[in-house]
Model the fold of this input.
Amino acid sequence: MKKFLLLTDFSSNARHAAEYGYHLAKQIQANVLLCNIVTIPAETPHSAMLVWPMDNPDNLMEGSTDELKKLKNHLKQKDKEGFEPIIHLINEEGLVADRVNDIVNGNHIDMVVMGTHGSSGLSTFLLGNHARFMIDSATKPLLLVPHTAKQKPVKKIGYATDFTNKKEDLAAIYALIPLAKLLNSEILVIHIQDKKKPSPSLKKWLDEFLIEISNKANYPGIYYRIVEKANTEYGLDWLCEFGQIDMLAMLHRPKNFLSSLISGSHTQKMARHIQIPLLVIPSNVMYSIDE
Done:
């Protein structure tokens, strides 16, 4: 991880997410692109980013640039100890998801960081049509930061999965390893199931699975836990509240349980309990072990 894209709409939640992303960048010595995308209201009525009042486009862009400079100064003044990321400003106009992917592809971004909106944390973000498109169209890991997330060292990353596609889960865990190494954090692989007892074959496969990963990646800090709950939503509720993890990571692919959470009826209930960042890993992200 060497470059983060921090998206902001200058709201309090977005400001908090930018602070969290900057703090994370300091930990792994990554540079930062601080970005606002000015969106025309008629084009995206459900945008999760700020919709500016109708005005002269030049005035809007100038105002956005001024706000970006203020936020940059705030971040640089917040913590002067240790590594200081280089902060570049990006101020553009257009549809958020489209412009984000253009910026990601043109600047070799490793991770996109943005805040969640609404008093219920992730609920408003995940239920918005615009946000679903952001998740669905992501080509790099997308870190969603709720306003309750604390700026502290990430010592344990939880990777939640149902293991319906073991090959993709393996690739996703490999994608997490470079970040975990830089943060010196553990990876806890969590399998959520509704059975009372895991089958011996599953436990045997998990043991072999993690040994294979640890050996190939030369990273011993990977463990697993089986969480027995009535359904995935309740399992994630419990995990985020009592699992002692600092970040939750999930692979996003069509028809997996992250997709069902985005559109499911239990999303709002689950979101109220999430106080840690959610790292969405797109299914097309592949890392070699040596990265």
